């Protein structure tokens, strides 16, 4: 059985948080992990695989001006105190399956700023952790 699939490109992705589409995002990456280990019993071969805790982490690369805008209306102006959902929508331009991932309870873990002579725009890579992914299709 053969099927045709459309590939996703950067142009097909929309990222939003705080109810706002982020125009100044240049990269997004996120992953889900689960602890797994072999279940040993009689003999020297595993009898199965047991599962443990899940964890979620990722990072975004964003213009500094977008990052500053995120804290503009907050009480303490501290991006590390924010908690929000991030919506990543993959919408192929030429048809195909729309995929939306909602990252729940996102918090940034660190922010490093800096500039160098000749820089035209500052892009900040911001690591994040979150508590789950809700998939919508």
Give a brief outline of the structure.
With 137 residues, this protein is mainly beta. Helices cover 5% and strands 49% of the residues.
Question: How would you describe this structure in keywords?
Answer:
137 residues; 8-stranded antiparallel sheet; 1 helix; 8 strands; globular
Topology, please?
Layout lengths: L12 E5 L2 E2 L3 E15 L8 E16 H7 L13 E7 L8 E10 L14 E7 L2 E5 L1
Antiparallel strand pairs: 1-2, 1-5, 3-4, 4-7, 5-6, 6-7, 6-8
Explain this structure to me?
- The chain is globular.
- 9% of the residues are buried.
- The chain is mainly β and 137 residues long.
- The chain contains 1 helix and 8 strands.
- The chain starts with 12 loop residues before the first strand and ends with a strand.
- The chain has one helix at residues 64-70; strands at residues 13-17, 20-21, 25-39, 48-63, 84-90, 99-108, 123-129, 132-136.
- The protein is 5% helix and 49% strand.
Q: What distance lies between the first and last C-alpha atoms, to the nearest angstrom?
A: 23 Å
Largest sheet: 8 strands, antiparallel
Rg, Å, rounded: 19 Å
Q: Helix fraction?
A: under 10%
Question: Count the strands?
Answer: 8
Mean pLDDT, nearest integer?
91
């Amino acid at each position: 059985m053969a099927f045709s699939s459309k590939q996703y490109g950067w142009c097909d992705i929309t990222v939003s948080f705080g109810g706002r589409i982020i125009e100044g995002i240049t990269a997004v990456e996120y992953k889900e992990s689960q602890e797994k280990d072999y279940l040993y019993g009689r003999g020297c071969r595993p009898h199965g695989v047991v599962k443990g805790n899940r964890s979620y982490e990722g990072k975004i690369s964003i213009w500094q001006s977008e990052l500053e805008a995120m804290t503009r209306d907050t009480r303490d102006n501290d991006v590390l105190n924010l908690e929000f959902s991030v919506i990543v929508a993959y919408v192929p331009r030429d048809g195909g399956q729309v995929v939306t991932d909602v990252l729940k309870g996102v918090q940034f873990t660190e922010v490093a700023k800096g500039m160098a002579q000749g820089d035209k725009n500052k892009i900040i890579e911001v690591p994040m952790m979150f508590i789950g992914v809700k998939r919508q299709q």
